[in-house]
Amino acid sequence: MKEDLIEVLKAMLTPDQVNTGTEDLYDAAADRYKKYAKARKVLDVPIPVAIVYPKNTEEVAKILSYCNEEKINVIARGGKTATEGGLENWKETTIILDALYLDKILKIDPYNMQATVEAGVALQDLEDELRKIGYTTGHSPQSKPVAKFGGLVATRSIGQFSTLYGGIEDMVVGLECVFPNGHVSRIKNVSRRAGGPDIRHIVIGNEGTLCYITEVTVKIFKYFPENNRFFGYLIKDVETGIKILREVMVNGYRPSVARTYSEEDAAQHFYHFYENKCVLIFMAEGRENIVEATSQGIHEAVEKFKDGIVKEVDSSLIENWFNHLNWSQKDIDDEVEGMLENDYHAGFTTEISSDWETIPKIYNNVIERIRKEFPRAHDLTMLGGHSSHSYINGTNMYFVYNYEIHCAPEDEMRIYHHPLQTIIVEETLKLGGSMCHHHGIGKYRSEWTKDEHGSAYFMLEKLKEAYDPNGIMNFGTIFPQEEGMKYIK
Ligand SMILES: Cc1cc2nc3c(=O)[nH]c(=O)nc-3n(C[C@H](O)[C@H](O)[C@H](O)COP(=O)(O)OP(=O)(O)OC[C@H]3O[C@@H](n4cnc5c(N)ncnc54)[C@H](O)[C@@H]3O)c2cc1C
User: pLDDT category, 336, cuts 50, 70, 90?
Assistant: First the structure.
């Protein structure tokens, strides 16, 4: 059956668009969630049958309709930077639909302040083109050099300058996508409309479970790097940092960056100046008068909570840190190389969000419960977090935990990551927060999707029934599947 499928795919496209190389298929079986087991070649999931590279929307439609009729699982793939199992394969017969050749920047339109790209264009490539003419996408996740537009939209990604430019959901103007039955939908590019519910949001964040994104139009912004200003402070505790972030936001200021780090997390980012304290940082950007007003707002907020400030730090330290934050493909590959050594030290994150009042409670409850309950607490080498994306009514918390692995590589996620993530998710949901701020649900938070949405899960479930009735789109992602639990616990 697998051989037959490969032959059909080759006949439908051209043979060079169907990859069945052993190493590439092994690589395609999982993403960065099980990166250690993957590096050590002990993955416990089925290997996909083929990686397919469509060259246009018609080819995507042809492949999807065939898979829909034959009930073959399809995993959409972009830059491969997924962290939550969105690219992991849980079905014996699966094909990977890779956006490698959907790589054209179709239009840059500075008059209407938007740019249109195919789904396989890397964010960095569009950003580089825009910078040449004085514009920016405003989108800057740490994976910017590698992540591609289809993936960025499908995961509801967010960048480091989100406080000013917003998340990807604020940037997407229109798009094109293909449903499993081969239907192509184009959502037109308009500045705003009240034509019923906003259907862009059915696609944004669907993680390849409802449709395949082929084209995206995003807003663009004028860029004034010469006006950038950076601010850094050592502060007494996380609560003080959160209060200052809130003060800045509720007074209507929009620094592009507004972050506060726990002492433990500060130690790994700002080891050269943190002095065993928590760290608060800001960046202001835009036109000079806006930067001036934003800087003033930051100073006022800091002044209001001056009892919690230990000292201001040299702004060049913050600027320099920012310039080295992004991950290239080489950084990702080097990390995998490092895992081939005998001792492995893992670092993971879980990002959640809530309102201003609740976020410090969640933070304290999680840290306390992990220290008390996590059976391998003695293997933790770091436990802390930072808030890095703020809104008028709340902020996120990015829990960060590092540990030494003292078990077989294939057991790591069950013994370490899953119990830690469980505590973070449970404590967040208990207080009404969201278990998932920007990495997507993937497969490894899908066991809690119903708890996340409560009575609104009805709406999500109906979308899946309507658009993917045969369940061929990324089995196990977002929508919980009993069959997949063997890969989790
Ligand atoms: C070092 C590093 C730093 C990161 N920093 C950030 C950050 O700052 N902010 C942030 O939000 N995320 C971050 N991430 C997570 C990740 O980069 C984002 O989720 C990114 O949006 C994924 O894009 P991608 O092209 O790599 O998608 P992939 O990893 O290829 O796919 C991700 C998901 O989207 C689906 N998908 C991919 N393409 C399509 C398509 N065309 N149509 C439908 N579904 C599709 C896949 O099936 C999968 O479920 C980081 C990851 C790494 C490794």
Answer: confident
- Rounded to whole angstroms, how far apart are CA atoms 194 and 127? 30
For the domain bounded by 226-323, which CATH number is listed?
Answer: 3.30.70.3450
> What is 114-222's CATH number?
3.30.465.10
Q: Would you say the CB of residue 77 lies under 6 angstroms from ligand 1?
A: yes
CATH 3.30.70.3450 region(s) of the chain?
A: 226-323
Kindly write down the DSSP assignment for every residue of 423-462, as one continuous string.
Answer: HHHHHHHHTT-BS-SSS--TTTSGGGHHHHHGGGHHHHHH
SS3 274: coil
Query: Which tokens is 444 given?
Result: 């490894």
Q: How far is the CA of 297 from the centre of ligand 1 (A)?
A: 34
Q: Are 423 and 374 in contact (CB under 8 A)?
A: yes
Nearest atom of ligand 1 to the alpha carbon of 157: 11
Pairwise CA distance, residues 71 & 103, whole Å: 28
Q: Which CATH number fits domain 329-441: 3.30.300.330, 1.20.120.80, 3.55.50.30, 3.30.430.20?
A: 3.30.300.330
Phi, psi of 275 (to 5 degrees): 50, 40
CATH architecture of 2-100: 2-Layer Sandwich (3.30)
Contact call for residues 465 and 66 (beta carbons, < 8 A):
no
The model's pLDDT over 85-107, given as tens digits with 9 standing for 90+, comes to 999 999 999 999 999 999 999 99
Q: Is 82 in the pocket of ligand 1 (CB under 6 A)?
A: yes
- Give CA–CA dist 27/208, Å, rounded: 18
Phi and psi at 69, nearest 5°, equal: -65, -40
Q: Which part of the chain has CATH 3.30.43.10?
A: 2-100
Query: How far away, in angstroms, is 479 Cα from ligand 1 center?
Result: 18
Answer yes or no: is pLDDT of 344 > 90.
no
